[in-house]
Amino acid sequence: MQPFDSLDKLENAAELDQLAKPIREFLNKKIQPQSLRDALHGVWLGHPLHPVLVQVPVGAWLSAGVLDLVPKTGPATSVLIGTGLAAAGPATITGWTDWSELNTAESRLGVVHALANYAAVGLYGASLWARLRGRRMRGKALAYAGLAIVSGSGVLGGHLSFRRAVGANHTADVPDLLPSGWTSVGRLDDLPDGGLTCVDVGPVPVLLHREGDLVRAIVDRCSHLSGPLHEGELVQAGGETCVSCPWHGSTFRLRDGSVVHGPATAPQPVLDTRVVDDDVEVRLRG
Ligand code: FES
Fold it and tell me: Is 10 in the same domain as 132?
């Protein structure tokens, strides 16, 4: 039994779905248009935005906790707590946007993570109010309670990132797994013109799309949460052919694997292709 094994129970707590479902429906309706969702996911940054933004409230509140141990620090602690409260808004909206496109187990953990953060925000708000009214000891007690909760919530966030790989690039291992050099993946005539096909190149599933004599290839495992791209749809964006993931709708250009729409923020690895005597060969683009 390891200390964080109890979190597995949260992942399996189906009762949390009753809470998660209406929240997800509300968020998917309210956080629109898609360009706003993309911005909040961090598509423009090429990295999830939420973990960047949470540094501010967590850092400010932790610093406030240290300052509260030092006598005569004046209003500095209140300024830090207020900074954390102001920064909690952007961190929250990016977190909910990411959460609204998670799979079931991750969304159960995520909803508990979010509720704990709301509790911490409430305690820090009450702490600031108490300090402004001159009730410093009460303000300290409330802030330390908030710090304990936000620390526990941080453990949940870490579990989501490092055990469940939320926010991680699910194609990061591809360069280590693909065979080096050109690999044959079948005959050109066997590929459906205009369709999507999945072939295994070593242990890596690769998506092929043929348009006449042109074959495009990207890794089939979606960088967001490993959805099978060959089961998705071909769409046009900016005059280019793209594939949309069947799980949460991330959209990638087939030409270069770049992200058109999130929730994915990492591009799909692309493979160069060539046709030799009607044989299609692929190789990881360097
Ligand atoms: S797995 Fe989530 S968008 Fe592809």
Answer: yes
